[in-house]
Write the C-alpha cells for this entry.
Amino acid sequence: MPELGPHARAELDALGIAVAYREANSASDLHDESLHPRGAQPYAVARPTDRDDVVALVRWARRHQVGITARGAGTGLSGASEPAEGSLVVCFDQMDRIVEVDLANQVAVVEAGVTLAQLNEHLAPLGLHYPVAPGETSSTLGGNVNTNAGGMRAVRHGVTRHHVLALELVLADGTVVRTGAPVVKLSSGYDLTQLVIGSEGTLALVTEVTVRLTPRPEQRATVLAPFDSLDAVTGAVTRLLRAGLAPSLLEYIDALTMAVLVRETPFTLGLAPERVAATAAYLVLVLETRTAAQLEDDLAACDEILEAAGALDALVLDGRAAEDLIAGRERAFWFAKAAGANDIVDVVVPRAHVARYLEQVAGIAADHHALVTGCGHVGDGNVHLSVFCPDDAVRERLLLELYRAGIALGGAISGEHGLGRDKWAAYLELTDPALLALQRRVKAAFDPEGLLGPGLGRG
Ligand SMILES: Cc1cc2nc3c(=O)[nH]c(=O)nc-3n(C[C@H](O)[C@H](O)[C@H](O)COP(=O)(O)OP(=O)(O)OC[C@H]3O[C@@H](n4cnc5c(N)ncnc54)[C@H](O)[C@@H]3O)c2cc1C
C-alpha cells in the first residue's frame, strides 16, 4: 500500500464518517475467527452509516489507491475479513437498519450490517423467519452473503444463495448498482447476485440485501441416535432423506466431540455407559412440521428408519435437552479452539460419501501422526474437522491431502467457511488453471485496479 500523507487523512476526515486511525484501532476490528491471525495493521477502520458513506469511502480509497477490506461482524473462520497492512477497513456494523419486511411477498430488505439474531428477532412476532442458520447469529447478512454461509439448517432450507433475491452493490469505482429483484424467478441477463454471493468482499461492497422469508414452523422434535459406525450414520441419512422426511437439521457428532460437549455444557446424554462405549458417532435430527399430527407421523417413520439403519437407540429429547444439545453443537468451534486445535476444516463431499471420506481422513491423520476429530452437517456432506497437528510444515501437507481426498470424492475444499486467506494457496494448487484464469478475468471486470480484498490473492 502507498504511504499516505496528511492531505489524504484530511480528505478522509472531511467525509464526516467515523474513522479510527492506526493508533486508535480497536484490536477486535483487526481479526476474524480464523485460527491464524496475522496481526496486520490497516491504515484506518471506517464505519459508514449509509450507502452514500460507502460510496464516499470507496472513491477516497480509489483516489489514493488504498485497498479495502470489507468487514461484517468478523466471525468468519478463514481470515477473509482480516485487514491487509495499510488497507482501509470498511466495517458495516453501523448499517443495521431493517429497511422493509414485505409480509405479502415474504421478503425482507436489510442493510448489510443487520445481524441474523436481529433479523430473526424482528421477524418472530410476524410468524416468519430467515431460515439460514450459520452457528454464529452475531454474523451480518453482508458477511453471510460474502461467504455464502450455510449452517445446520441447510439440509432442508439451503444456504444463503438460495434465499438472496437481490443486492445493492457499491462497485470498486464507487458506482452503485442493484442486482436481481424481489421475485421468485428471474431470467433476465447474467445473474450477478449469485456471482457476488461467496465472493468474500473481492468483487463489490454489499450495502443492502433482499432475502426470502419462510413461515416459522410450529411443531418440533429433536432426536438423538447413537451408531456404532460412521458408515451406519451415512446410511441412515440416505434412508431418512429418501423417505421424504425433510428434517430441518441432520448433524453427526463423533464420540470424542460428544464427550467434550457433555463435559462442557449442561447437556446430559441419558445413555447407559455400555451404549456410550459402543458408539462411534451420533446422529442428531430435528423434525419440524405445521401440525402435531404430522409431527407424530414423521417421528414414527423416523423411528422405523433409524432402527432399520442400525441405530443403537433413538431418543426424542425434551425441549430443554434439545436446546442444550443444539447450543452445544453450535459451540463445537470454541471447544476445538480451547483444546488447542491448529486448524478447522470444512470440506464438503456428496453426502453419501461422508463415511468414506472420514475413513480416508483417519488414514491421512495417522500417516501424519495427527489427531483429526469433529462433527458436521452430515445431511449436506459438510464435515467440520478439528486438526491437531502443531508442526506447520506437516500440517500443510496433511491439509492438502484432506482437501485432495474431498475433491477426489466429488467435493470441494470449503462448503461454507470460504477460502479467505487460510485456504487460498491450497485452492490455487488444486484448481484447474483454466478455471482460475476465468475467475481472474471476472475479478478484473469488477475491480480492474485490484482494490477490493487486498491480500486475499484474488487479482
Ligand atoms: C462459533 C462459530 C460458528 C460458525 N458456524 C458457521 C456455520 O455453521 N456455517 C457457516 O457458514 N459459517 C459459520 N461460521 C462462520 C461465520 O459466522 C460466517 O462466515 C459468517 O457468514 C461471517 O459473517 P460476518 O458478518 O462475521 O462476516 P466477516 O467475518 O466480517 O466477513 C466475512 C467475509 O465477508 C466479507 N464482507 C462482510 N461484509 C461485507 C459487505 N457488506 N460487503 C462486501 N463484503 C463483505 C468480508 O470481507 C469477508 O470476506 C461460524 C463462526 C463461528 C465463530
About this structure: Residues 32-33, 69-77, 80-81, 92, 112, 134-136, 139-140, 142-144, 146-147, 149-151, 200-201, 205-206, 333-334, 416-417 surround flavin-adenine dinucleotide (CB under 6 Å). Residues 95-215 form a domain with the Uridine Diphospho-n-acetylenolpyruvylglucosamine Reductase; domain 3 fold (CATH 3.30.465.10). The chain is about 35% helix and 20% strand. The radius of gyration is 23 Å.
